[in-house]
Every structure is written in C-alpha cells, then in structure tokens.
Amino acid sequence: MERDESRRDSQRVTLHPPEDFAGMRRAGRVAAELLDHIGQFVRPGVTTGELDRVCAEWTAERGAVSAPLNYRGFPKSICTSVNHVVCHGIPGDKVLQDGDILNIDVTPIVDGWHGDSSRMYFVGRIGVKARKLCEVTYESMMRGIAAVRPGATLGDVGHAIQEFVEAHRFSVVREFCGHGVGRVFHEPPNVMHYGKPGEGMVLREGMFLTVEPMVNAGRWETKILADGWTAVTKDRSLSAQFEHSIGVTANGCEIFTLSPAGLDHPPFAA
Ligand code: MF3
Ligand code: CO
Ligand code: CO
Questions:
Q1: Could you tell me whether strands 244-248 and 208-211 are parallel, antiparallel, or unpaired per DSSP bridges?
Q2: Is 88 exposed, middle or buried (CB count within 10 Å of its CB: 0-12, 13-18, 19+)?
Q3: Best of 107, 119, 214 to mutate for ligand 1, by most ligand atoms within 8 A of CB?
C-alpha cells in the first residue's frame, strides 16, 4: 500500500481501454493462485522467510516477476505481517506460532501488469477476537468494493469501509491507503479507507484500483520500525488486512484477484 503523503488529482489517473482489463485479469489470476498455493505452508513452526521462498519460486515458475523485490529497496518477494504488524512486514527468521494471524501480500507482474492482493491466514487455532477482526476486515473491503461504480466517489468507498469497521468497535488505519494499479505498481489516485459520502475524486470507467483496508483491534495509529518498512500498531493491538485489485466497469467493478478456489473469503483456510 501507499503512504498517503500527497494530494493527487484526477487528471493523472489512467483510464484503461477494454484490452487492458484482459491484462489485469491474467495478473490478478496469478496473484490469487499464489495466495491459494501458499495457504498449505502456513502452520506453526514455519518461518516467514520460508513462505517468501515458496512464493518467490512459484512466481518464477509461472514466468512472473515479484514486484516487491527491490521495490524502493524492499528486500523480499512478499510482505508478511504478523499479529500487530499492520503492513510491509519483511519475511525472515520469524517462526510462526499457534494462534498467530498473518497477512501475506503478493504482487506478481504478468506481461507488465501488476496483480496486487493480500489475505489473512490463521496459524493453528485462533482466538475469537482475532477471527472477528479478520472477518470484519474482509467484509469492510467487500463493502468498499461494492460502492465502486462510475459516478461514485472515493469518499463513498472510504465511508463504506469506515462505517462498517467502526460499528464493530475496530479502527481504520489512516497512514496507508489503496492506490491506482496497472502497468505501474502504485499510481494515482490514493484510495483512503475512511471518508465522507460524496467527497473525493469521482470514479470513472477504466480506472484500476486496489482496495486494501488495514483494520486495528485497538487504536488506528501506527509507527514504522527501525528497518524502515515494518509498520506496527502503536498500542500493539492486533491488525488485519485484505486487498483486491479491481477495475471500474460501466455499471460497477470487476475484481481481478478473486480466488478460483474460493479461498479468499471466510471461513479462511489454514
Ligand atoms: N503490495 C503492497 C501494496 O499493497 C506494496 C508492498 S511494497 C513493498 O501496495 F515494497 F513493501 F513490497
Ligand atoms: Co496495494
Ligand atoms: Co499489496
């Protein structure tokens, strides 16, 4: 996800012709299949570095390129964000333990198109609160996506997410947002996961976006660790995230990163 540090205007947002949808469909499919594939490896005792290696190998075998690797200096092929890590966790020696929740965020590049998607995975048996957090986060993403159509605004999308999350007494992270996606990994506009109806940029057919709410069990504030990447909740509360890449169509949107096996919605695998 992008850090929200600039106001970006609608002039710079790419409007894609129908043939570009075919490109994103292929990239999104590879992202979804990769997230389907990695699920079986998520279990107590495995390290996040091992998950990275499995994903890197699978992606290369498919003839795709892992966009995160060397992106602005990011050292690995996927992001692995465990428990109170909000996003951009760096895979390494961390050993997963029974009861952990884990976000895996992947972005294979296929024929130049970026398929950006993430899901939550459960390590062994999960607490009631952690499960609820993941379910609410998933549902908030889908409500945001349901608000996407030509003529709707980014504020409508953010509002749909925020309203649902806060009704469940969880909070929406402010410092990171969704983004335009396509031949470029991150491009305008910024897609905030909070907002007011009718505010913000008007959506138009042919825009490609990610919707990727980060939801905290406690307060929304985050901080970045000394590695320069890992974002964590300031209060160390649990955090969850889901992400789809979508394209705005004539009367709604198309989700490019749906799981062909149906593994991207609750009840989640692992
Ligand atoms: N996949 C992330 C997103 O959803 C971006 C990760 S950038 C990285 O936008 F460098 F941390 F990999
Ligand atoms: Co993204
Ligand atoms: Co992502």
A1: antiparallel
A2: buried
A3: 107
- Pick from 180, 172, 173: nearest CA to 148: 180
Supply the pTM of this predicted model.
Answer: 0.96
The reply to whether ligand 1 has any atom less than 6 angstroms from the CB of 71 is: yes
Ligand 1 nearest atom to the CA of residue 181, by list position? 9
Tens digit of each residue's pLDDT (9 = 90 or more) over 18-36: 999 999 999 999 999 999 9
Residue 265 confidence (pLDDT): 84
User: In this structure, which amino acid lies at residue 191?
Assistant: V
The residue behind tokens 């850090």 is 3
The 10s digit of each residue's pLDDT in 175-205 is 999 999 999 999 999 999 999 999 999 999 9
CA angle 50–262–100, rounded 5-degree value: 40
Single-letter amino acid code for the residue at 79? C
Tokens of 256: 């490019």
Residue 236 near residue 219 (C-beta atoms within 8 A): no
